[in-house]
């Protein structure tokens, strides 16, 4: 399986869907703005530490306005479990300020109402919101056709033979966004992520247990 095609993508999707089942949209307290703040904290940290830090932030500051009004040092202390707090705290304040400037309140729902291309551009203009975070937000919050690539997907797709080894994540994201049928992006993204976490691990992958082993270059090699 050396060529990225719609047929190949659908084949991978169908096998993973049969193995893992239909996925559900992750929910997060704080709505769209909460999703962006958590996304900003997700880079270079584990999902567990991000979630713990976001929960700490919500406990100390009950809404986005209270976060925006808080001193940067207080925000940094609240999100310390995510790491890089002295960088992330001012970015969170700046993000909330940009949301308020655009919409007149602290809701990021406006990003779901404008064309997704414009929303994507707005997001990546914000300090701390990279292309992957923007794609995650738009896929999960609005169903827009973006295919985020995290460390697991960056490992799995080249192993399958869909991309050369060491292909940059953003190149994979751009190509998958272009080729993958929009209606399967949500389920396929999450199911490849599950596969990478549970079976196609960086070390000692469990190839005999993998639903893609018969069509995988890595397992076949």
Give the amount of beta strand, in percent: under 5%
Alpha carbon gap, first and last residue:
12 Å
Backbone shape: globular
Rg to the nearest angstrom? Answer: 18 Å
Largest sheet data: none
Show unreliable segments: none
In short:
With about 220 residues, this protein is mostly helical. It has helices at about 5-20, 30-40, 45-60, 65-70, 70-80, 85-105, 110-115, 115-125, 130-140, 150-160, 170-180, 185-200, 215-220. Helix 1 crosses helix 12.
List the helices and strands and how they pair.
Blueprint: H1 6-20, H2 31-40, H3 47-60, H4 64-69, H5 72-78, H6 85-103, H7 110-113, H8 116-124, H9 131-142, H10 151-160, H11 169-179, H12 185-198, H13 217-220
Helix pairs in contact: 1-12, 2-9, 5-6, 8-9, 10-12
Describe this structure in words.
The chain has helices at residues 6-20, 31-40, 47-60, 64-69, 72-78, 85-103, 110-113, 116-124, 131-142, 151-160, 169-179, 185-198, 217-220. It is mainly α. The longest helix is centred in the middle third of the chain and has 19 residues, at 85-103. The N and C termini lie close together (12 Å). The mean pLDDT is 93.
């Amino acid at each position: 399986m050396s060529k990225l095609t719609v047929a190949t993508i659908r084949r991978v999707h169908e096998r993973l869907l049969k193995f893992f089942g239909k996925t559900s949209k992750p929910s997060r307290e704080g709505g769209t703005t909460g999703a962006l703040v958590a996304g900003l904290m997700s880079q270079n940290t584990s999902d567990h530490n991000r979630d713990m830090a976001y929960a700490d932030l919500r406990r100390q500051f009950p809404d986005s306005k209270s976060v925006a009004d808080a001193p940067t040092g207080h925000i940094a202390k609240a999100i310390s479990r995510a790491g890089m707090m002295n960088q992330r705290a001012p970015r969170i304040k700046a993000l909330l300020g940009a949301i308020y400037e655009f919409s007149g309140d602290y809701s990021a729902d406006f990003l779901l109402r404008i064309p997704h291309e414009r929303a994507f551009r707005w997001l990546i203009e914000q300090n701390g919101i990279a292309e992957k975070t923007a794609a995650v937000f738009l896929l999960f919050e609005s169903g827009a056709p973006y295919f985020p690539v995290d460390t697991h997907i960056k490992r799995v797709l080249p192993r399958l033979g869909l991309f050369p080894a060491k292909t940059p994540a953003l190149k994979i994201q751009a190509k998958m966004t272009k080729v993958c049928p929009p209606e399967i992006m949500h389920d396929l993204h999450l199911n490849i992520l599950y596969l990478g976490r549970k079976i196609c691990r960086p070390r000692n992958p469990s190839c005999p247990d993998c639903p893609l082993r018969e069509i995988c270059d890595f397992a076949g090699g």
